[in-house]
Amino acid sequence: MDYRNTRMWEELNAAPAILQTLAAKNAGVLDEIAKAAKGALNAYTVARGTSDHAMMYFKYLAESILGLPVASGAPSVVTVYNAALRLDRSLVVACSQSGKAADVMEVVRRANDCGAVTVAITNDESSPLAKLAKFHLCCFAEEEKSVAATKTFSAQLYLSMLLVSALAGKKEDFSAFLHTFSSNVPTIDAATDAAAAEFISAEECFLLSRGISAALAFEAGLKLQETCYIKARAYHSSDFYHGPMAMVGKGTKIVLFASRRALNESSEQTHREDYVKCAQKMLELGADLFIVTDDEGAFSGMAAKIIPVAGGGDERLTAFYFALAAQMLACKVSCGKGLNPDSPRALKKVTITK
Description:
InterPro entries: GlmS/AgaS_SIS (IPR035466), GlmS/FrlB_SIS (IPR035490), SIS_dom (IPR001347), SIS_dom_sf (IPR046348). This protein is an alpha/beta fold. It has 2 domains: 3-172, Rossmann fold, CATH 3.40.50; 177-336, Rossmann fold.
């Protein structure tokens, strides 16, 4: 199958255009959430799969920019153990592409009963979750038909960024970034070709990053799992050193996501030193290292294979380039293996867990 003929490819390429109108379409709701959440002492996210990776991105932004502690919720605490969570002073953000996740809705229902400020992020304004939460942010991505979530993930990331900006009382204009991002899609396409060819024979790999970009490592791992059947495992690079690194040997495939920018200049040197150290260590262990980055110069002289992306003004924005690169890589590898990324075995578009 030619990857260009798949729904996954069509949908991931639709993301830049979808992002163009999200701020305007959700502006009123964002303002209302910012007002309602002024007294929140913390945030609590609830999601599964790809949506949970978007919430990991939200967590890093909210904690780093707002100083707002964010807990990643475990729905089973409510649906299996019937816990009475005290969320009365919390901002609860529930994320689900379909808006039909039963366990996510149960947590929101309990949060509503507590008096929490509840926000749903979905791609369906008429979905049960969108109606259940007090506020709804919509992806407006039209129906996503491929099982692998791509354009909706990019929209979830963007809405998460807009939400944090609104909570910070800012009106940021991302139009210049969106224009640059859209114009760089062909470049990202070309940049993933060589890596895709090498991953066609892969059966397992690790994906690493830290901080905001870790959300993209986890999402890339999921995409390689569900569309390529590769045993891909993502880790925060800081956690990887605490045991899992022992699995790395000669030829172990590793993908590292390294953003040139952090959130502010004061942390960029530490940020850069951290991912350079990670790359050096993986190469010392004999890994077959691929680096998705907008900082090619940081790895000069290393025997790593660079997947170059343009990058954004800070790590929040570079995440969108990383997401697209990961999605393109998975789609190409899946088709190269003779698989159909639109219909992975054993999976459905909407997964209901309770």
